[in-house]
Amino acid sequence: MSDQLIKVPADWAKSAYVDDAKYTEMYEQSIKDPVGFWAEHGKRVDWIKPYTKVKDVSYNQRDLHIRWFEDGTLNACYNCVDRHVKDKGDEVAIIWEGDDPSVDQTITYTQLHHHVQRFANVLKDQGVKKGDRVTIYMPMIPEAAYAMLACARIGAVHSVVFGGFSPDALAGRIQDCDSRFVITSDEGVRGGRPIPLKENTDDALDSCPDVESVIVVEHTGGAVTMKEGRDVWYHEVAGRVDHECPCEEMNAEDPLFILYTSGSTGKPKGVLHTTGGYLVYASMTHQYVFDYKPGDIYWCTADVGWVTGHSYILYGPLANGATTLMFEGVPTYPDSSRCWQVCDKHNVNIFYTAPTAIRALMREGDEPVKKTSRKSLRLLGSVGEPINPEAWLWYHKVVGDERCPIVDTWWQTETGGILISPLPGATDLKPGSATRPFFGVEPVLVDNDGHPLHGATSGNLCIADSWPGQMRTVYGDHKRFFETYFSQFKGKYFSGDGCRRDEDGYYWITGRVDDVLNVSGHRMGTAEIESALVAHEKVAEAAVVGYPHDIKGQGIYAYVTLKQGQDPSDDLKKELVQWVRKEIGPIASPDLLQWAPGLPKTRSGKIMRRILRKIAEDDFSNLGDTSTLADPGVVDDLIDNRQNLG
Ligand code: ATP
Ligand code: MG
User: Fold this and answer.
1) Cα 525 from Cα 511, distance rounded (Å)
2) What ligand 1 atom has the least distance to the C-alpha of 261?
3) Any known ligand binding at 116?
4) Choice from 160, 258, 264 to test ligand 1 binding pocket (greatest atom count within 8 A of CB)
5) 452-453 vs 473-474, strand pairing mode
6) Residue 79 DSSP class
7) How far is the first Cα of the chain from the last one, in angstroms, to the nearest whole number?
8) pLDDT tens digits for 10-25?
9) Shortest-distance atom of ligand 1 to CA 263
10) How far is CA 243 from the centre of its chain?
11) Ligand 1, closest atom to CA 387?
12) DSSP string of 433-499?
């Protein structure tokens, strides 16, 4: 099933920016002559002072540094806003769709320009200076975008914390980067339920005495308490500041933002991105991977609290003068047809979401999709986890009516932008594969001793050399930067993910290497076994981990969530074990299988296997940091069921 090949549609090969031949030509050039390649493509953004140096990188412990376009100056906000005002001032920059389906708003580039300047002056009024860190804890409303762009405009470094995070998680992120300014809102709303953002901020700030100013954007009008001398209403200050605010001239290597990784694997790291290389890379990948053409309506369902929201709701699309849709709500509210209704309402052409959302919607059946038209859709995208071939095929067939290519984009907070992905006019697709590297990206698979592996093989996924969007350091901890990414395999960036390369040179992400199973000496990624389970008609979602096994070393422990209306029974358990045996082989058949009404996920929707491993090992006392879990209650249920399993 996963070996199926879906050819580039003929009209795509003709109309896209690059076809297969052009991809090969550009890719080869980018690897042979990275300096020449990026010297050329760096020009896609407007520079105040053009760069003369393109690249200066060392991955060595002694002098680890990554610099791109280092003597150039520019402003990211100027590139995302001001430069579009002259020619497309009346075109829509942001379509905002509220949680309530009857509420939406469009913001043109001219309007965006006004809002952002106003916001920038409010920041200045509150004492924010170039280089200061500003924490943004906001719902998905246009003001979140204005706030980020306003920081970029005046050279402040934003640190966006996802609005679903707890006061503790917020406090930790404020303290870690020494942020003295917070922007929040009275409340957020998701799925009809209010989220007390200001109240959470107040709780967080009990342990952040250095915060001087909290700017509060009124959104729902819900009651909040304002602390005299610290808290101000945005609209009150905005009413008295200047309308105009010039852009600060920034060096290419000045910090643009800090973003804490989502925490699937441990203590969040403050990933630091700088201005020039990041913007070049975000905008270039957005244009080519999504084949973005002027006039397209583009919707990425991520939250601005994740890197996907930074690069592919905000910076990439706006740098390209695109129309980007920002959605406040959730895919299942008021019902599971919502995404497709929004596509129809705003004539969305490009739709980019995560496997967790696709699996959740697939669970509800085809009808909520089929009752909508979706005829505006041209291209679909996926990001965040390996997408199971079953979910891929459903997305392709039911959502995209077999008409829309799917770009399965592999990348990380650390990479700033997409590193491995099909290009829709160039790449034949294989369901479940992120396919081929983007320009300038040279993946290398290495064994555990760091030896490069060639041809069709599996190994640790590294990148041989830098690309402009790469993170520059872990904020305040350059040593951790080296240790996390460059210490395992000398001279290479190590992603932490495992990967298989097939005969066609296509890449298949098999999961995080920490999750890799070693069963009787065979190394297996979790993704393959999970995909086999999800391919069964009664299974909605599955997570697989290893647990200590006397004979095999590691046994396979599977957590399975069934589709709506399916009965968990011992017979079905046996059937599923047999099914995996048949799909992959006896070596992969689960030793223990537990029904899971829900799986523990991060707030960005990723399965947290670290916790599932502990439960499988019967080690409930030591679950580690669970502060980034979306629903901690799920864990208690799993522990109860585990104890029943014996
Ligand atoms: P943390 O690093 O804090 O544990 P995280 O890795 O979940 O959190 P992100 O940077 O948001 O934080 O996610 C990047 C990871 O997501 C990748 O390393 C990979 O494991 C997974 N991933 C992202 N996109 C894909 C994809 N298209 N296919 C497979 N895996 C993907
Ligand atoms: Mg990670």
Assistant:
1) 6
2) 3
3) no
4) 264
5) unpaired
6) I
7) 35
8) 999 999 999 999 999 9
9) 3
10) 34
11) 28
12) --BSBPTT--EEEE-TT--EE-SSEEEEEEESS--TT---EETT-HHHHHHHHTSSSTTSEEEEEEE
**Ligand 1-lining residues (CB < 6 angstroms):** 261-265, 268, 306-307, 383-386, 408-413, 434, 495-497, 509, 512, 604, 606
Q: What does the DSSP 8-state code read for residue 42?
A: G
Measured from the Cβ of residue 548, the count of other Cβ atoms closer than 10 Å reads: 11
Average model confidence (pLDDT) across the chain: 95
Which domains, ranges and CATH numbers included, belong to the chain? 520-641 (3.30.300.30)
Show the tokens assigned to 608. 């947290």
Q: Are strands 323-327 and 92-97 parallel, antiparallel or unpaired?
A: parallel
pLDDT number for residue 521: 83
Is 220 annotated for ligand binding? no
Percent of all residues in the chain with a pLDDT value above 70, rounded to a whole number: 98
Alpha-carbon distance values, 472 to 41, 181, 252, 428 (Å): 20, 23, 12, 33
CA 187 to chain centre: 24
Residues with Cβ within 8 Å of residue 44, at least 6 apart in sequence: 280, 283, 284
Q: Is 512 annotated as a binding residue?
A: yes
Q: Is the dihedral of CA 531, 536, 539, 543 positive or negative?
A: negative
Query: 209-225: per-residue pLDDT in tens?
Result: 999 999 999 999 999 99
> Who contacts 346 (Cβ-Cβ below 8 Å, separation ≥6)?
95, 97, 104, 297, 299, 325
Alpha-carbon Rg of the chain, whole angstroms? Answer: 24
pLDDT category of residue 570 using cuts at 50, 70 and 90? very high
Establish whether 539 is an annotated binding residue.
yes
Q: What secondary structure letter does DSSP report for 196?
A: -
pLDDT digits (tens, 9 = 90+) for 372-408: 999 999 999 999 999 999 999 999 999 999 999 999 9
Helix then strand then coil, in percent of the chain rounded to 5, is: 35, 25, 45
**Ligand 2 midpoint to CA 93 (Å):** 31
